[in-house]
Amino acid sequence: MSWFEAETAVERVTDVRWSAHVSGHWNIGTNPNGGYLAAIALRALRQLGPHTDPISVTTHFLRPGTAGAAAEVITEVLRVGRTITTARATLVQDGRARLEMIASLADLASPSGIEDALTIAAPPIPPPDQCVLRSGVEQGIDLPILDRVDIMLDGEQATAGQAGAAEVSGWIRLGDGAPPDALALVLFADAFPPSLFGLLGNVGWVPSVELTVHVRRRPAAGWILGQFSTSDLHDGRMIEDGALWDESGALVAQMRQIGLLLSRADASGG
Amino acid sequence: MSWFEAETAVERVTDVRWSAHVSGHWNIGTNPNGGYLAAIALRALRQLGPHTDPISVTTHFLRPGTAGAAAEVITEVLRVGRTITTARATLVQDGRARLEMIASLADLASPSGIEDALTIAAPPIPPPDQCVLRSGVEQGIDLPILDRVDIMLDGEQATAGQAGAAEVSGWIRLGDGAPPDALALVLFADAFPPSLFGLLGNVGWVPSVELTVHVRRRPAAGWILGQFSTSDLHDGRMIEDGALWDESGALVAQMRQIGLLLSRADASGG
To answer: Do domains B3-106 and B128-260 have the same CATH topology?
Structure first.
């Protein structure tokens, strides 16, 4: 069992309650990564119906999770259809809801027969061994999660405030070499540095209010390429878009989130 | 009271239950428009806490609504914070859940003090009087909703299958001249023709699985400009992105949805 499987595992307690443990190995600073917490809730949701691939999963982050502590996932099935199962989950720790999720799941290995017409091509970035290891120093915070995922950033964008654009791209994989699955893509969608950091410098922790991931294909084994950008920052709230491709160049997920910029280092001279 | 206010009104029955009536005036074909149904649920959610502007609202469409029939909205407050209220709602008709919603609401009139850095400029399209009235004929279905909203499409994109790109833009306003508010933006985000129709022709009804709208600013009075595009159609599921601007040129909302393409008219020679 991979680290990711073991540390996002849920155990069924009743029809609607699951127990889990939030590891401290997936932290951004002192808080568990949001995509990691979401993966725990999704592990429960994908056991509720016949469909296991999250084609649309929205998570609202109500409060930070607590690392190294027990958690409970409360689930509700909203509809089990022929091709789509929709369900919701609340992840609770110490009696307080940490996140609320709603997801539609399908079977991405079951083709519809409708011809493809459009896709988003993977951007040309250098291969992983020519990229730069993601470092917490650049973002101004500790990143224990780097013990669990390898992140190699496109070098031109890897220095805070030097990219001249709110754009980050690079490669990501599970640190123990386990192949990525649809659930890992939800984690990967939330594991890169905030794309604002290329423009604004060390923006610190940018808490997500809400994150939506659309998984488009089950990924091939190997590295996953991610590209993220922010083109809309207003009143301290930013909308960040991103996409993930597998090593074959296939688009495997899209993501969008609304996050909070708590301060602007560049504006205060920091 | 505007048509939109009157026909999305909810009446509190208990702390968690609201009664409503789904009008037949907002139909796409024989089904109530999804953005219209979402607005009914949002009317209830915005009364649960001190925050009334939906900065992030995600709706999963479980089953089509029934026009001309009563509805019930069941709500749950997830968290009331200092700056954000998060809540969920289920819209039920005839004992069956039609949509599930989760929303974070804030006060868009209360500035954060953090300087803006990035926005998306409104695209240059002709003014409304030089655009083309949206017609159901082009999409191959009746559009009763056109009695309630005026939609003027950029002429170059207004003919099915002739645009050469999956892109639609134009202007929208409430049909009775009422000024738009944050709630109307959620409706407007789902009221344009599917952007796929410029590329593929008459695609018919493209049911939304999930729609997320981020309201960015309260809109000024007047027309709202909308631009929508699809760059990812795989296995019968399309991801459509869009944005809305008010007449001052300010970005007022972003949207993304995952929808189902039920058939491809062009592929079958239709």
So the answer is: yes
